[in-house]
Amino acid sequence: MRAFAEPAAEPARNTPDTVGTIMSLGLGLVAVIAVIYGCAWLIRRMTGMAGMNNSAIRVVSVLAIGTRERIALVEVGGQQILLGITPGSIRTLQVFDEPVVDVSSAASGDFARKLQSLMGKSRAAPEHKE
């Protein structure tokens, strides 16, 4: 009775090749990482080209007045400009003929003190008499 005989052993062709799969996934991951680094390099190069003349305008200092309002002292062509910055607009508050804050002293954090002293000088508060 040969009807119940075992079929001949056939090599398993449907089993996944784990080494080949891991190599394929690894190469795909390396390719994706290379594309990401390439895009980052390209963006850095493009922003470097657009911002070649960064020395023309310099932000000397910024002071937060409220949650979304700021005052910024900007130096343009040797002249310092005080700007009021809100979410909806940017306005010129004062244009100074001579530099108010030296760029080296702005790093020390005394911009707020000098600004308050200038505001006190320009706007003398009326004295209250009782």
Plain-language structure description:
This protein has helices at 18-50, 103-106, 111-122, and strands at residues 57-64, 70-76, 79-85, 90-96. By secondary structure, it is of the alpha+beta class. It has a four-stranded antiparallel β-sheet, with no helix packed on it. β1 and β2 form a beta hairpin. The termini are far apart.
Low-confidence stretches: none
Rg on CA atoms, Å:
34 Å
As a percent range, the share of strand residues is 15-25%
Instruction: Please give the share of residues in helix.
Output: 25-40%
Distance between the termini: 126 Å
**What is the number of strand segments?**
4
Q: How would a textbook summarize the main sheet? A: 4 strands, antiparallel
Q: Which strand order does the major sheet show?
A: 1-2-3-4
Mean pLDDT: 77
What's the helix count?
3
Structural class of the helix and strand makeup?
alpha+beta
What are the secondary-structure elements, in order, as H or E? Answer: HEEEEHH
Overall domain count:
2
Question: In terms of topology, how is this protein built?
Answer:
Layout: H1 18-50, E1 57-64, E2 70-76, E3 79-85, E4 90-96, H2 103-106, H3 111-122
Antiparallel strand pairs: 1-2, 2-3, 3-4
Please describe the structure with a list of short key phrases separated by commas or semicolons.
38% helix, single chain, 130 residues, alpha+beta, 3 helices
Write a short abstract of this structure:
With 130 residues, the chain is an alpha+beta fold.
